[in-house]
Specification:
six-stranded mixed β-sheet; homodimer; Nuclear Transport Factor 2, Chain: A; 22% helix; 123 residues; cytoplasm (chains A, B); 6 strands; alpha+beta
């Protein structure tokens, strides 16, 4: 699969899982993974998913605007950079966000998220 | 220097150079470096700086809103994620942007930019 198609497939999978079954994201992180969520750093799959599943909203829907990817230069890793909109249930306006992922291949031929940085883009 | 301070120092240096002497950015890239600028991929220091110095505006000023950084997990590299505003000379409104850098240490004890992904955040 070419890198752009792989990045798009990852992004589709990530945000569909986020929007329908947030605890299912645990499979995408490992112990060394780090999430920076609005400036707060959280390490390890369990802690990251605990953060994501306890965000102060129940339902949300991500709409992706752009996906950029580049090889990360090491271990066939890949950098994926996303921009889009986040619609929370009950809120009138969508929030704009940007997020980047550093994906690392697993021995099983899949990828996991080593680095994840998320920011809302305040208007 | 701790990673957050290093990231902030890099960001300060990068955007000051961009705003005052864009061709000076050549020193920050190498042959293997890649820039994704609004979806266009450009490789190599010379090509990247040619792109940046021929953007369709002469003067600009970046104002940084957030800087996040994480160790990239390999070679003591570092991921730096920036959001901010870009004011072009003669334009009434600033443009919001997000940008990420993958910094790799050099044998000389400095860093160069291996990966650079830039996107405007359209309102």
């Amino acid at each position: 699969m070419d890198p752009d198609a792989l990045a798009k497939a990852f992004v589709e999978h990530y945000y569909t899982t986020f929007d329908t079954n947030r605890s299912g994201l645990a499979n995408l992180y490992q112990e060394g993974s780090m999430l920076s969520f609005e400036g707060q750093k959280i390490q390890g799959s369990q802690n990251i998913v605990a953060k994501l599943t306890t965000l102060p909203f129940q339902q949300c829907h991500h709409s992706i605007t752009t996906v950029d990817c580049q090889p990360s230069g090491v271990n066939a890793g890949m950098l994926v950079f996303v921009s889009g909109n986040l619609q929370l249930a009950g809120e009138q306006h969508a929030l704009k966000f940007s997020q980047m992922f550093h994906l690392i291949p697993t021995p099983q031929g899949s990828y996991y998220v080593l680095n994840d940085i998320f920011r809302l883009n305040y208007a």
